[in-house]
Amino acid sequence: MSDHHQMTPIRFLSRCFFNHWQNIIFLVLPFILALSSPQDSYRKIKQDCISKGEQIEYRVHYGFINAGEAIMRTDKAIHMVNARPCYKVDVYGNTVGFFDMITHVRDNWGTYIDTSAIVSQTFYQSIQEGKYLKKEVIQFDQLSHNAIVHQLNKHDSTLIKKDTIATLPHMQDLVSGYYYMRTFDFTKMNVDEIFTVTGFFDDTTYQIQVRFLGREKIKTKIGELNSFVVSPIMPKNSFFRGKNPIRAWISDDKNRIPLKVKAELIIGALEIDIRSYKR
To answer: Which of 111, 142, 180, 267 is the most buried (most CB within 10 A)?
Structure first.
């Protein structure tokens, strides 16, 4: 069965978030690369919101029905990748209850995030969604602007195919992009201001435009918190409804904790709510 027919809510939202920007990227990529050279140095981002040993747990639900759970875990050690110190972050997602009987999901997305530049050095994923299986490792050369994609055997992880794909400077993967947004100073943004995150997903480079929607106080399992609200700008489609169909809440404090994600679907809404936090 095709990838499309095996699509699950988690994978579908990931694809939508990184979709429909490729045409612009392919037009501007040669000009950007012409102005960049392998001797480019790493940027430096000052931040204290990302820390070793952080763990965040989430509940995924469709209305009152529990659909799944997710954990974002930062390793307690610093890892050296491409001769750079990195945070190692793993995101685990799985279905529960009734949803687990319909589509059995056991996903792991992982990344090594450069502690200074807050870019991805290596991304890996092990996907099990029903009968759909995928294993992949992507190594980023942030100075030469390349992604080396290793497609692995679904069962024994042996190498099947290796491709080198041109990218843009300061590349993010599916996980590191969220952590990069945590470093933003939202206090200096105006409502409806748009910022861009450069990401790599499904062997393609994207520039994702995200709108800052302002501030909001929300009730969560870890307390009532002030938060910043952002929304990726989505193309018109038949799956979502409303002006800003996907919204994310990030705590308005020094930790910039991802608190909640809500996707307004044609029928109902899929929500990811924080359940616990420790660092």
So the answer is: 111
Q: Are strands 84-95 and 269-278 parallel, antiparallel or unpaired?
A: unpaired
Predicted TM-score (pTM) of the model is: 0.83
Cα 23 to chain centroid, rounded: 21
- Please, are residues 136 and 163 in contact by the beta-carbon 8 Å criterion? no
List of residues 6+ apart from 161 with CB closer than 8 A: 149, 150, 151
CA quadruple 260, 263, 269, 272: dihedral sign = negative
Q: What is the token pair recorded at 266?
A: 């044609």
pLDDT tens digits along 48-97: 999 999 999 999 999 889 999 999 999 999 999 999 999 999 999 999 99
Rounded Cα–Cα distance for residues 152 and 149 (Å): 10
Q: Domain-by-domain residue ranges, the chain?
A: 9-278
**118 in Cβ contact with 176 (< 8 Å):** yes
Say if residues 201 and 18 touch (Cβ distance below 8 Å): yes
Q: Which residues contact 34 (CB under 8 A, 6 or more apart)?
A: none
pLDDT tens figures, 117-134: 999 999 999 999 999 999
Geometric angle at alpha carbon 179, from 174 and 272, rounded to 5°: 70
